[in-house]
């Protein structure tokens, strides 16, 4: 099965490369419920960094898995199911203290609406899409706005409905690009956040797109059609 997944992922990666502008590799991400689900041949990451940094590392060619022990950003880890959301993040206090919101109540209303995977996860696997020997739960693409336009056109091509991105400028690569597509079985576009732009070096002219495995084939076939 791992060989079949690898060949399919290579095919998908080729379609992306031929049809949209890429600044780095699309990233395949798999949520792991237990140690038994670690994809064959994938090693544990050897440093403690943020989820957004892990996505960036995979986009530049690294393959690895991580557990809560390797995640530096606990808010990001909470968004993707590796732990409960830290109380000060969940309450909005953290972001209010950073000056992101006018009042604590407004901060709380926003954090209540953030995408959070509540089902506990044991770990997360990351790989460049063309090297992933597993079926990804979500594919994340970091690229320029023209890429988001092309991906949006694939959705419109199939159902005619306008694309409605869901983001708040916080918890971008964790909540918006991973948790939201995973939970909604959807495609989401997010503008990044201060944390990911600083820690993961998301450039000023880049954004992120999360594509659920439930929509991946649709996006691929539409890219080939249009």
Question: What does this entry show, briefly?
Answer:
This protein is 44% helix and 14% strand.
Describe the fold and architecture.
The chain contains ten helices and six strands, in the order αβαβααααββααβαβα. It is of the alpha+beta class and 226 residues long. It has one domain. A six-stranded antiparallel β-sheet has the order 2-3-1-4-6-5, sandwiched between helices. α1 crosses α10 and α7 crosses α10. It is globular.
Which tags fit this structure?
226 residues, alpha+beta, 10 helices, 6 strands, 44% helix
Instruction: Give the low-confidence spans.
Output: none
Q: How many domains, as an integer?
A: 1
Query: What is the count of β-strands?
Result: 6
Tell me the structural class.
alpha+beta
Cα shape: globular
Helix content: 40-55%
Strand content: 5-15%
Distance between the termini: 31 Å
What is the ordering of alpha helices and beta strands?
A: HEHEHHHHEEHHEHEH
Strand adjacency order, main sheet: 2-3-1-4-6-5
CA radius of gyration: 17 Å
Mean pLDDT: 96
Largest sheet: 6 strands, antiparallel
Break the fold down into its secondary structure elements and pairings.
Blueprint: H1 2-19, E1 27-32, H2 51-59, E2 64-67, H3 74-79, H4 87-90, H5 93-97, H6 104-113, E3 123-128, E4 138-143, H7 145-159, H8 172-184, E5 187-190, H9 194-199, E6 207-212, H10 213-225
Antiparallel strand pairs: 1-3, 1-4, 2-3, 4-6, 5-6
Helix pairs in contact: 1-10, 7-10
């Amino acid at each position: 099965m791992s060989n079949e997944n690898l060949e399919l992922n290579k095919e998908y990666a080729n379609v992306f490369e031929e049809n949209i502008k890429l600044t780095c590799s699309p990233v395949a991400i798999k949520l792991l419920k237990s140690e038994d689900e670690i994809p064959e041949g994938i090693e544990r990451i050897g440093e403690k960094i943020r989820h957004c940094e892990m996505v960036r590392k995979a986009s530049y060619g690294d393959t690895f898995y991580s557990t809560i022990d390797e995640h530096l950003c606990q808010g990001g880890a909470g968004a993707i199911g590796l732990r409960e959301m830290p109380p000060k993040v969940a309450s909005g206090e953290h972001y209010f203290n950073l000056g992101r919101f006018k009042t604590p109540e407004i901060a709380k209303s926003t954090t209540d609406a953030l995408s959070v995977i509540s089902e506990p996860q044991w770990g997360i696997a990351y790989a460049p899409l063309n090297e992933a020997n597993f079926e990804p739960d979500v594919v994340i693409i970091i690229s320029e706005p023209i890429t988001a336009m092309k991906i949006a056109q694939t959705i419109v091509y199939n159902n005619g409905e306008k694309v409605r991105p869901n983001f708040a400028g916080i918890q971008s690569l964790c909540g918006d690009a991973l948790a939201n597509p995973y939970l909604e079985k959807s495609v989401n576009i997010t503008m990044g956040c201060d944390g990911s732009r600083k820690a993961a070096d998301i450039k000023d002219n880049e954004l992120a797109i999360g594509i659920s495995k439930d929509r991946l084939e649709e996006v691929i076939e539409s890219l080939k059609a249009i």
